[in-house]
């Protein structure tokens, strides 16, 4: 059994219904969307709630607001954003479970239907992915693609500049870039590129707050030291939650050792006695869970555990995992909308576009899931 804590908000209900009307043709291209007052009556929602749903539709490129006139279903965009060829570069796809459905969402987005996509990344062994990604981007530049969706490589050695080389080469070729999931810079820095993903700091805060509310008192964090900016963001949110909620902060700068090093992990547990661990992602949480059980620790009796991503196997681990579900298909859809907007308005400021996550409660946190 599991329990979804964050129910679908009312604005999401309004958004989903209007989007379905647009995609089915019930609201035709060029047609006027009902007023916010009318939509409020239809859905029993406030104008603020309706306004947020309409803004999300606008962000997706499905509607446009006309001052003094109203909101209209967007017609096919100008030639600046039609019949384009876009490159997709996701080198870490074999290792990171969220990327496959994210790319599927990108390719199936309503705004993608009029365009062609070139696939690249994920076909090389881990040790050769940086070189393969660099070669692929050179191909995209040679083909003069109209834009590139890029998920920067993670876990690169210190001093490796592959991610920066890739975006710099695309900049020089004047090819727009939309980043997927993560920045090319260490957290909290950002570059001059649209980024579509989740607010990792807030996610780290939320999952830490949940473990504390579930009864944990000494919460630690598991995350790699040379990982993506996403992990650093989640670690920052974890530390912020410990501080803001005035919890025991003794472990905020004592990260959990790699689950692969059972001796180091056992020593850490004996010395620091954490009763809750926030894992930067479900893959690490799964590895840690198996290690803890092998060491004779009970989950959640001795240690409450939570992850991030809600990968397919999260519910089927020895102790079903509490986690944060990433709306990965929606991230892909939002990325397409961001790219089309960037093609039409290249001079607009870069944006961080965050898609809302959902906390999924299962047994590993110690709170009843059903």
UniProtKB/TrEMBL annotation:
Domain named HTH gntR-type: residues: 8-76
List GO molecular-function terms, semicolon-separated: DNA-binding transcription factor activity; transcription cis-regulatory region binding
Query: Which UniProt keywords are given for this protein, alphabetically ordered?
Result: DNA-binding, Transcription, Transcription regulation
Gene3D superfamilies tied to this protein: 3.40.50.2300, Winged helix-like DNA-binding domain superfamily/Winged helix DNA-binding domain
Keyword Metal-binding recorded: no
What InterPro entries does its record include? LacI/GalR-like_sensor, Peripla_BP_I, Tscrpt_reg_HTH_GntR, WH-like_DNA-bd_sf, WH_DNA-bd_sf
**Would the keyword Repeat turn up in this protein's UniProt record?**
no
Report which superkingdom the organism of origin falls in.
Answer: Bacteria
Q: Which residues form the signal peptide?
A: none
One Pfam family of this protein, by short name? Peripla_BP_3
Q: What is this protein called?
A: Arabinose metabolism transcriptional repressor
């Amino acid at each position: 059994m599991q329990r979804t804590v964050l129910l679908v908000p009312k604005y999401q209900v309004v958004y989903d219904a209007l989007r379905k009307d647009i995609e089915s043709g019930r609201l035709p291209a060029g047609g006027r969307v009902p007023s916010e007052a009318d939509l409020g009556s239809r859905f029993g929602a406030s104008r603020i709630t309706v306004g947020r749903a309409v803004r999300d539709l606008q962000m997706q490129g499905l509607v446009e607001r006309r001052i003094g006139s109203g909101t209209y279903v967007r017609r096919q965009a100008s030639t600046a954003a039609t019949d384009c060829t876009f490159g997709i570069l996701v080198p870490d796809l074999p290792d990171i479970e969220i990327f496959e459905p994210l790319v599927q969402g990108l390719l199936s987005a309503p705004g993608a239907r009029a365009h062609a996509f070139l696939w690249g990344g994920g076909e090389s062994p881990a040790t050769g992915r940086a070189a393969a990604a660099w070669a692929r981007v050179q191909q995209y530049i040679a083909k003069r693609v109209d834009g590139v969706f890029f998920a920067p490589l993670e876990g690169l050695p210190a001093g490796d500049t592959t991610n920066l080389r890739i975006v710099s080469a695309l900049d020089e070729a004047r090819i727009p870039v939309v980043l997927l999931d993560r920045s090319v810079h260490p957290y909290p820095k950002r570059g001059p590129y649209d980024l579509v993903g989740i607010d990792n700091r807030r996610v780290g805060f939320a999952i830490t707050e949940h473990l504390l509310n579930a009864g944990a008192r000494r919460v630690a964090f598991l995350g790699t030291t040379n990982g993506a900016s996403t992990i650093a963001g989640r670690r920052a949110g974890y530390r912020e939650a410990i501080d803001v909620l005035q919890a025991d902060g003794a472990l905020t700068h004592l990260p959990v050792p790699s689950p692969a090093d059972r001796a180091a992990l056992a020593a850490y547990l004996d010395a620091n006695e954490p009763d809750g661990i926030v894992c930067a992602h479900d893959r690490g949480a799964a590895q840690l869970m198996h290690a803890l059980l092998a060491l004779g620790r009970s989950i959640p009796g001795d240690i409450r555990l939570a992850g991030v991503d809600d990968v397919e196997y999260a519910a089927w681990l020895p102790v079903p995992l509490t986690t944060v579900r990433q709306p990965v298909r929606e991230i892909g859809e939002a990325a397409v909308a961001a790219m089309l907007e960037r093609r039409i308005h290249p001079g607009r400021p870069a944006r961080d576009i965050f898609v809302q996550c959902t906390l999924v409660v299962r047994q590993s946190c110690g709170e009843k899931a059903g």
